[in-house]
């Protein structure tokens, strides 16, 4: 039991500020034996939809470099997942054995699919997750995702419908468009969203060595200043909003910047690929930050 | 068992222009065909890089690679004691794949087909099956691609056929040219590793000639994590996309859609 950190979203309590971001930690179970989950506040699963999705054809990643130094990663996975039925029956019970908070990331091709996925889990699961994260920001699908996450009416409908089917916390994950986020947050809060993950990867393209354009969501160090701006502005407009900061966090120093900008929790994303243990390493290093903060 | 550890480079040696062997401190319990993800601690890169485990002995292991960009150049030029992070061993190697596909565990005669750097993955398999009869077909564009010849010659019970596209060493041509002379009935299994076009040509040969010997192919795809958490490195199979880093890198030729 740790006592250096506490944060709450709805009725769930986090005992570490570090969460592993959706799409960068599989279903968590792949990391058993590698990651010390007792030091991790939570894990967000890969996005789950009603039906199974094959995802996009390879290549699914490309790097963004300047003068030989890579500063960003583009991905276009396309939300490959086995569908909510298989997930609920076969995978979720295994994830729920991990000693950490489990947040299921939910995706829909239609506005009502988000609520259908959550309703299925709520009705069918003997081991339901602790919270849900709505992916309103995937840049790699033809339907859904970012298409809904920039539209006030869609955000309103999706949050309203999902709020009706679960009492568990609903976290909304937005794309890094700071001007749009501010308006959409108001809508999401009015409809009952409990918290926000700011931000998802940003739609981008790079030209590869063979001359082809690769389109995907850009993440990594290059996303950090964009994410910080979104959090700062969101916090200025909604001081009470609970924000989970995400975007290019690679170190304790990065994490502290997000926390000082107003995030109550942080998510580690692309950095998990470089070092799958980075989450618990950063959490260990943040203990001093929180101890000092509590003495201020 | 998969582990994450920080360690240091023992030595880097140049095998041929732009091809290097880097020896890394640390014992690793692996099976042939598995790989490690390596990152340099003092040189930021957004992703670690995958390398077949070439050889392991006395508490260290080696990777074999070609320099093809700034990062691999830095790795090749790394002095002794350069700090690295290693994640591994990753993936399903040849032995586990044989089990998965219900292929005999104790083959008596094995065919190996390597293209260029693909020899890195197959070399440890040849050592693993040192007592068994083996034939290696090793192809490259030029004789410079036919690396570690001295080490290959020291593998017991091994007949070697070399092909080069320019004819600078061995038979002029590609590995499939030699396959027409192979008495497949004598073999229990074939293992291959090399560029995707080579594996595609082998698969086509197997289908066209109705070869019954199971062919295990070690595949390559752009990889981010190496441990199944990012879903980047998919390979198309008859049963949808499968992760190269977890289900693979070893696949049965008949399930691959290339």
Can you give a write-up of this model?
The complex is a heterodimer of chains A (296) and B (258). Chain A is α/β, with parallel strands linked by helices and 296 residues long. Chain A has a single domain (7-30, 41-295), classed as TIM Barrel. In chain A, 34% of the residues lie in helices and 22% in strands. The mean pLDDT of chain A is 94. Chain B has 258 residues and is an alpha/beta fold. Chain B contains six helices and 15 strands. Chain B has two domains: 3-90, Beta Barrel (Elongation Factor Tu (Ef-tu), domain 3); 94-255, Nucleotide-binding domain of ferredoxin-NADP reductase (FNR) module (Rossmann fold, 3-Layer(aba) Sandwich). The longest helix of chain B has 13 residues, at 196-208. In chain B, β3 (35-40) and β4 form a beta hairpin. In chain B, the strands form three sheets. Chain B has a seven-stranded mixed sheet, with helices on both faces. A six-stranded antiparallel β-barrel of chain B has the order 1-2-5-4-3-6. Classes of the chains: A alpha/beta (296), B alpha/beta (258).
Question: Quick recap of the structure?
Answer:
The complex is a heterodimer of chains A (296) and B (258). Chain A has a single domain (7-30, 41-295), classed as Aldolase class I (TIM Barrel, Alpha-Beta Barrel).
List the helices and strands and how they pair.
The complex is a heterodimer of chains A (296) and B (258).
Chain A: E1 7-9, E2 12-14, E3 18-20, E4 42-44, E5 61-66, E6 69-75, H1 84-95, E7 101-106, H2 113-124, E8 131-135, H3 146-149, H4 152-165, E9 170-174, H5 178-190, E10 195-198, E11 202-207, E12 213-219, H6 224-237, E13 243-246, H7 252-260, E14 265-268, H8 271-274, H9 278-295
Parallel strand pairs in A: 3-4, 3-14, 4-7, 7-8, 8-9, 9-10, 10-13, 13-14
Antiparallel strand pairs in A: 1-2, 5-6, 6-12, 11-12
Helix pairs in contact in A: 1-2, 2-4, 4-5, 5-6
Chain B: E1 3-16, E2 19-25, E3 35-40, E4 49-57, E5 60-66, H1 70-76, E6 83-90, H2 94-100, E7 109-115, H3 119-128, E8 133-140, H4 149-153, E9 158-164, E10 171-172, H5 175-179, E11 189-193, H6 196-208, E12 215-218, E13 234-237, E14 240-243, E15 250-252
Parallel strand pairs in B: 7-8, 7-11, 8-9, 9-10, 11-12
Antiparallel strand pairs in B: 1-2, 1-6, 2-5, 3-4, 3-6, 4-5, 12-15, 13-14
């Amino acid at each position: 039991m740790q006592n250096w950190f506490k944060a709450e979203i709805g009725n769930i309590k986090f005992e570490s500020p570090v969460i592993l971001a959706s799409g960068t930690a599989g279903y968590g179970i792949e990391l058993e034996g590698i990651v010390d989950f007792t030091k991790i506040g939570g894990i967000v699963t890969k996005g789950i939809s009603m039906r199974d999705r094959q995802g996009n054809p390879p290549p699914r990643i490309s790097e963004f470099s300047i003068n030989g130094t890579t500063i960003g990663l583009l991905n276009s996975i396309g939300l490959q997942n086995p569908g909510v039925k298989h997930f609920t029956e076969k995978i979720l019970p295994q994830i729920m054995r991990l000693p950490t908070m489990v947040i299921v990331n939910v995706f829909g091709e239609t506005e009502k699919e988000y609520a259908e996925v959550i309703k299925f889990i709520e009705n069918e699961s003997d081991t339901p997750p602790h919270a849900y994260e709505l992916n309103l920001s995937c840049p790699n699908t033809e339907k859904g995702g970012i298409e809904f996450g920039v539209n006030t009416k869609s955000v309103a409908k999706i949050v309203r419908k999902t709020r009706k089917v679960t009492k568990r916390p609903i976290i909304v994950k937005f794309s890094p468009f700071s001007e749009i986020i501010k308006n959409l947050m108001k809508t999401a809060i009015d409809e009952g969203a409990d918290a926000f993950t700011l931000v998802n990867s940003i739609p981008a393209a790079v030209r590869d060595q063979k001359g082809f354009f690769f389109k995907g969501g850009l993440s990594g160090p290059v996303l950090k200043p964009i994410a910080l701006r979104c959090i700062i502005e969101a916090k200025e407009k909604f001081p009470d909003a609970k924000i989970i900061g995400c975007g290019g966090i690679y170190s304790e120093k990065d994490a502290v910047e997000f926390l000082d900008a107003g995030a109550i929790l942080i998510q580690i994303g692309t950095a998990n690929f470089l070092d799958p243990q980075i989450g618990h390493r950063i959490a260990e290093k943040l203990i001093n930050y929180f101890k000092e903060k509590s003495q201020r | 068992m998969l582990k994450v550890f920080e360690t240091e480079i023992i030595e880097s040696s140049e095998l041929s222009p732009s091809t290097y062997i880097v020896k890394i401190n640390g014992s690793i319990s692996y099976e042939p065909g598995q790989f490690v993800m390596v990152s340099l601690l003092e040189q930021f890169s957004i992703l670690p890089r995958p390398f077949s485990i070439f050889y392991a002995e006395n508490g260290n292991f080696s990777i074999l690679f070609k320099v093809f960009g700034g990062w691999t150049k830095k790795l090749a030029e790394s002095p002794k004691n350069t700090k690295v992070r290693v994640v591994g061993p990753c993936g399903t190697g040849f032995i586990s794949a044989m089990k998965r596909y219900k292929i005999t565990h104790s083959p008596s005669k094995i065919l190996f087909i390597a293209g260029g750097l693909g020899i890195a993955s197959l070399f440890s398999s040849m050592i693993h099956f040192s007592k068994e009869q083996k034939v290696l077909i090793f192809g490259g564009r030029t004789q410079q691609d036919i690396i570690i010849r001295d080490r290959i010659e020291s593998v017991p019970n091994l007949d070697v056929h070399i092909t080069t596209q320019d004819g600078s060493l061995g038979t002029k041509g590609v590995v499939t040219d030699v396959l027409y002379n192979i008495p497949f009935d004598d073999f229990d299994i074939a293992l291959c590793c090399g560029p995707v076009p080579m594996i595609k040509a082998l698969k086509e040969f197997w289908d066209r000639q109705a070869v019954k010997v199971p062919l295990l192919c070690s595949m390559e795809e752009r990889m981010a994590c190496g441990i199944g958490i990012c879903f980047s490195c998919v390979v198309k199979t008859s049963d949808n996309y499968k992760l190269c880093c977890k289900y693979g890198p070893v696949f049965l030729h008949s399930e691959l859609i290339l």
